Amino acid sequence: MLIKSTRPAARSGRFTIARSALGPCLLAASLAGALSVSSVHAQSMSSQQMSYDIAAGTLDQVLNQFAARGGFLLAIDASLTAGKTSLGLKGAYTPEQGLRQILQGSGLDAVADGRGYRLRAAPGLSTRSHEELEAVRVQAQRESATGPANGLLATRSATATKSDEAIMDTPASVAVVTQQQIESLATRTVGEALRYVPGVAVEFDGVDSRFDTMSLRGFNADSVAWLDGVKLAGGSGAGNNWTLPQIDPFMLERIEVLKGPASVVYGQVVPGGMVNMVSKRPTQTDQRNIELTLGAPRQLRGSVDLGGALGQDGVSAWRLLALSSDTESRTDHVKRKRQLLAPSVTLPLGENGEIVLMGSVQRDRGGSDYMWLPAYGTLFDNPNGKIPLSRFIGEPHFDRYDRDQDMAGWAAVYDINDNWTLRQNLRVQRIKSVMESVTSDMYSFDDPSEGGWDWRTLERYANRGTGTSRSLGVDTQSEWRWNLGEAEHTVLLGLDYYRGTFDARRQTASVGPEGSGGLLDLYEPEYGATIGPFTTLSEVSNRRHQTGVYLQDQVSWGNWRLVAGLRQDWSSVSGTSRRRAGEDDLGQSDKATTGRLGALYRFESGWAPYISYATSFEPVAGVTAEGVAFRPMKGKQTEVGVKYQPDGANWMASAAVFDLRQTNRLTDDPIHGFPDQVQTGELRSRGLELALTGRLSPNWSLIGSYSYLNTKVLSSEIPEEQGKPALYTPRHQAALWVDYTFTGRTALAGTVMGLGIRHVGSSHGGDIDVAGGGYASLRIPAHTVADFRMATQLGWISPELKNSELSLNVTNIADKQYVNGCGSLWTCGWGLGRQVSLTFSGRF
User: Which among 199, 189, 203, 193 is positioned nearest to 259, based on CA atoms?
Assistant: First the structure.
């Protein structure tokens, strides 16, 4: 069937066809149409030379880059290229000449089939050369900001500018965790996936598998995340912080981190940055993938990923993701189950557009492994020894956390002409949660003798929280591409709107007989205490609105890349908050103007130094003791950095230094005291970040990162905070993951072995009273853990398993026991212990 291209492929030397989400689909259609016109065209193509500069790598990577550059289809039997490498290609070649050069010594050759080329075993060199080989036809296309990346390295992103741009052209710090990295490290949460990203601290407040806890450049960001460029909602206010979403990494194509203020394109956001998750989308390539995982602590997990083309129009496609898991935590009596279903479909919008309809239904059931333990027995010595890593301080018959999470939306793009593109991203979301837990009362061990602690008996109380969060987010963009002399402009005008509602109730109750304190022996626990009756602590019902208009211009002028942006936001909150002390009306409106400037210079050698300045804002609900409404907190950052990627290299390095400040922070009122607050607080964060990611050779791949972070409270009305670092912000963090792929004609060909080391430096915890008056800061010690992976292809067992893999992953190999969070003497948490998983993955 002839598929007609609706747009020219280039303008003024720019591949404008790939500048929107529709670009890859239209490019694929253009290539398919061009290659199916006639054999005459194929003959013409085969005689045309093009210049290539492709680095050495695995054979399938080199072939994919060669076909993408040459613009032709290539049919491949995946078992033929498995375990093989190529020295790459440099120089001018026709497709046939280039294929011969790349395949030299591989035992393969390529034959024209009328629409492109097909790989086969060279006659006489393989016992399978005369067998009928099932070919898998693939279309070569450039990487896009919403599609799969090539291995560990992503080269394009839309998170920083909302336009599909090369990361090397972006004057900002952008880190991308690809799908291969998610799979290689066997990550089960977004937080785990970010362990190797510089400037990001995760799991710093004890282990909590229900939520993704993280901070960016010293600023807490665990309740602020975006999915496909649309903000995800979570409940907050009056101490209610459990109605938060959690996106399973299985749903994601990539996880992207933009560091530094991002308000100019995303509105209210913490100054440290934001996390944007990119969903898996339908593709024209058939998807028939299955995964089964067994693990310890007990882990049963199964998933399927199905999809493919719908019809012959080159655009319509479908995809269905399904997952079921049943796991046990390292904490006793804690089990969790998850069921997830995420369908999506891509449909054409006329001849020049498409819309991707996406939805997901997720059900989480089980308990919580977030345990508040005393510092004595975790951070400090206890005469009874260390508190076991598996200790559960709740009640098995009572504790639970259930979450219903539903989402639906679309991502639409329409090309009015070659230079004007319209886009819209929309998502509606509903989260309903129930939390019941028994926890420590945070004050003391039981004191039966009234002469001192017994160092083992903990007093407890019960919590119950219910919450419902609903939100609508929509972002509409208009992008123009035009030239002014030698300067190429990409102008983005956008309007986004967010509306969220949140209703919650929090209750508390005694544990055990009245007056008993719900005592639990931390070293010989006995469970079965009665719970109740409950009394209400707080109820909150609020409505939040935000509207933002933004304008951005990206300029490409010779080797210069410039970006400038300006945004105006209007936000409001309304509702009620009821506590034991009374009822407060929530009613506040704010507005803010934010901006960004950045400049980058691309040297021919691959170096790209840049400088940027950006601002941010966050609304703050509430009033001072005098009844004056709080102003938004403001952030500003200056950043200088450099990126490096030699021509043709499959790796990228970056370095950045920054000075980041946040003003209008809340602090205790020096006149009226707590709970009244004023906005005289200021926090400064300065740092250095280094990163290196990609394939260094056909055998070696690497993920390396280092960050130095110096945070300081510059202004606070709380004396013990003044001049101190921010909580849970280690000054030094370093991580290194290296894997080796065996190649050649050996029994281990295709096997991958990986080893990772993660170091988290010491950090500042909460403040505690000391004898004689005053305060002292808890110091959370540094820790270093190692991870391991081994994966092997199973084609050697049977030809039917040629696209199957068995992988073994171990995190925290030595099962190191360490404290990763301590907010007070009674709220410390253990880090994650050793986890082992064995995964079978197959493509059929």
Answer: 199
